[in-house]
From TrEMBL:
It comes from Thermus tengchongensis. PANTHER family: HOMO-OLIGOMERIC FLAVIN CONTAINING CYS DECARBOXYLASE FAMILY (PTHR14359), PHOSPHOPANTOTHENOYLCYSTEINE DECARBOXYLASE (PTHR14359:SF6). SUPFAM superfamilies: CoaB-like, Homo-oligomeric flavin-containing Cys decarboxylases, HFCD. Binds 1 FMN per subunit. The gene is coaBC. Transmembrane segments: none annotated. NCBIfam families: coaBC_dfp. Keywords: Decarboxylase, Flavoprotein, FMN, Ligase, Lyase, Magnesium, Metal-binding, Multifunctional enzyme. This is Coenzyme A biosynthesis bifunctional protein CoaBC. It catalyses: N-[(R)-4-phosphopantothenoyl]-L-cysteine + H(+) = (R)-4'-phosphopantetheine + CO2; (R)-4'-phosphopantothenate + L-cysteine + CTP = N-[(R)-4-phosphopantothenoyl]-L-cysteine + CMP + diphosphate + H(+). Catalyzes two steps in the biosynthesis of coenzyme A. In the first step cysteine is conjugated to 4'-phosphopantothenate to form 4-phosphopantothenoylcysteine, in the latter compound is decarboxylated to form 4'-phosphopantotheine. Catalyzes two sequential steps in the biosynthesis of coenzyme A. In the first step cysteine is conjugated to 4'-phosphopantothenate to form 4-phosphopantothenoylcysteine. In the second step the latter compound is decarboxylated to form 4'-phosphopantotheine. It comes from the Bacteria. In the C-terminal section; belongs to the PPC synthetase family. In the N-terminal section; belongs to the HFCD (homo-oligomeric flavin containing Cys decarboxylase) superfamily. CTP binds at residues 276, 286, 302-305, 320, 334, 338.
């Protein structure tokens, strides 16, 4: 957790600042808030102070009667300054090194880490000067969170680039910024979600995988600095930012997508619930309903992970095992048969974990014989534990 100074500048998105402050505090961050005079035309100091749980640093409070200078104090206090919303003007000042107001002076006074959440009209965002300033800030080591494409605030402007990321997304970006990059250099291929094996254009065989486990691995690896390609079966989850997402439906499509990137990958985590069978006959037309019993003939799908194991080379290979009864023995058998470094055993029949849930309860079986039983935890935490082991194998 970090000491975060949220600097609010003058834009309509300033009304989202209290929500952002509350989310940051709920995550355990220590927060302070700074508001420019323009920001206070959109949002009251009181609502910012209540959300931040403390007073608002304003232009009037810049120089204290006791002689202390607020910009120096804030720059020393903050581990991160998050400017949200950030106007083109505030970015330009920081890029040029101006320091004639509390925010620009705080930034120039040596703020350790700075992140910008631009919010402006598309024409202003795409203006060559703003783009030049954005690149200058990046070159200075500042981070840019967004902007996003979407409805713009001013009346009659429609949609465009320049919308501030939502507070939840800003929180995610901040979390990533603060995460040590211990997987930098790793090229990681992750699979997630179910596959769909179509019988006809409207019917398919599938399973309840939501994709959450695999997406958690992809996001955690991204935050830790890895380059990530996520091969995803059909899910309702939004594509994670900063990750290349390849969408597939069937096991055969998943196989093709994974094998096509295998030579690139240094590690693979197969969290997808790949269907073991597909219908032998696929109809192009919707099959009419018939009163009589219908028998489906199924063909085995290729075992993608086994194929990867047969051509493993120096890669780190991680599989999952979804089991009911004799889980440990079956998972161990899969670990050896598929030539893996690690297999993550989880359970089909336990309430609140496995398919679809936010949490998981797993046993990690390693190639070297170690067996690590983890308590129930968020999938994101499970993902980090898996990645700790991937790192161990990857670094040799
Ligand atoms: O997506 P969620 O809702 O978050 O749920 C997560 C999960 C329960 C789907 C996930 O944690 C999980 O267990 N995924 C693997 C499920 C599975 O297919 O297990 P399996 O024991 O049938 O397969 C063993 C391994 O071989 C898996 O890594 C699987 O991806 C792989 N496999 C399986 C069949 C096949 N034809 N090709 C494969 O590569």
């Amino acid at each position: 957790m970090a000491r975060v100074l949220v600097a609010v500048t003058g834009g309509v998105a300033a009304i989202k600042a209290p929500h952002l402050l509350r989310l940051l505090r709920a995550q355990g961050h220590e927060v302070r808030v700074l508001a420019t005079p323009r920001a206070l035309e959109f949002i009251t100091p009181l609502s910012l102070a209540v959300a931040a749980g403390g007073e608002v640093a304003t232009e009037e409070a810049w120089f204290r009667p006791d002689g202390r200078a607020l910009h120096i104090e804030l720059a020393r206090w903050a581990e991160v300054v998050l400017v949200a919303p950030a106007t083109a003007d505030a970015m330009a000042k920081a890029a040029l090194g101006l320091a004639d107001d509390l925010l620009s002076a705080t930034l120039l006074a040596g703020a350790k880490r700075v992140a910008w959440a631009p919010a402006m009209n598309e024409a202003m965002w795409l203006a060559p000067k703003t783009q030049e300033h954005a690149r200058t800030l990046e070159a200075m080591g500042h981070a840019l969170f967004g902007p996003a494409y979407g409805p713009l605030a001013a009346v009659g402007e429609g949609e465009g680039w320049g919308r501030m990321l939502e507070p939840e997304e800003l929180l995610e970006r901040l979390q990533a910024l603060l995460t040590p990059k211990d997987l930098k250099g790793l090229k990681l291929l992750v699979s997630a979600g179910p596959t769909r094996e179509y019988l006809d254009p409207v019917r398919f065989l599938s399973n309840p995988s939501s994709g959450r486990m695999g997406y958690a691995v992809a996001e955690a690896a991204r935050d830790r600095g890895a380059e990530v390609v996520l091969v995803s079966g059909p899910t309702t989850l939004p594509a994670p930012w900063g990750v290349e997402v390849v969408r597939v439906e069937s096991a055969l499509e998943m196989r093709e997508a994974i094998l096509g990137r295998y030579s690139w990958a240094q590690a693979v985590v197969m969290a997808a619930a790949v269907a073991d069978y597909r219908p032998a006959e696929v109809s192009r037309e919707k099959e009419p309903k018939v009163a009589a019993e219908k028998v489906l003939r199924l063909l085995p799908n290729p075992d993608i992970l086994k194929e990867l194991g047969e051509n493993k080379g120096p890669r780190v290979l991680v599989g999952f095992a979804m089991e009911t009864g004799e889980g440990l023995a079956r998972a161990k058998e899969k670990l050896l048969r598929k030539n893996l470094d690690l297999i993550v055993l989880n359970w089909v029949n336990r309430e609140g974990v496995g398919f679809g849930s936010l949490e998981n309860e797993v046993v990690l079986l390693l190639r070297d014989g170690r067996v690590l039983e983890l308590p129930r935890m968020k999938k994101r935490q499970v993902a980090d534990r898996i990645l700790d082991l991937v790192k161990e194998f990857w670094k040799g």
